[in-house]
Backbone:
């Protein structure tokens, strides 16, 4: 399970991110800041190689970026983890949020959370998405449960 984003360069540091799975908006306007594309209540962490590709784009160019089907996380503290792109993640209830509560949280069931709690600082596990496991969540942008925002379940395998 992976999904792709279309990223269009609008100016020197502005980009438009289009994700066909967005149910609450057509696209997000972002700015490139270091290794992140940031918008209002939105943060997309990128690898240095992908930042270099974005930087070499011309205004009007669009590039597709596919998110991977697994996520390696390393325990930093009781509810903090480092992902495979070296960005901090935070466990809040049953949701694992990327940097600054990105709009792509991952739902973790009680069994997965229990296994994460047993990890020691420095331990790494791989999370994989559960096919067809989307759940309704409160919208990360406006907080409303009525926006149709969803999160897929991820488990340790």
Residues:
């Amino acid at each position: 399970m992976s999904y792709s984003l279309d990223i269009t360069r609008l100016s020197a540091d502005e980009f438009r991110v289009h994700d066909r799975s967005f149910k609450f908006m057509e696209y997000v306007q972002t700015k490139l800041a270091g290794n992140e594309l940031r918008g209002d209540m939105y943060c997309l962490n990128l690898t240095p190689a992908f930042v270099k590709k974005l930087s070499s784009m011309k205004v009007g160019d669009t590039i597709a970026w596919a998110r991977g089907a697994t996520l390696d996380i390393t325990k930093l503290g009781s509810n903090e983890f480092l992902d495979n792109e070296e960005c901090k993640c935070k466990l809040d209830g049953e949701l694992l949020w990327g940097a600054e509560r990105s709009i792509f949280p991952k739902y973790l069931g009680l069994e997965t959370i229990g296994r994460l709690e047993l990890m020691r600082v420095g331990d790494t596990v791989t999370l994989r998405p559960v096919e067809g496991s989307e759940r309704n969540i409160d919208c990360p942008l406006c907080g409303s449960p009525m926006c149709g925002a969803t999160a897929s379940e991820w488990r340790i395998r």
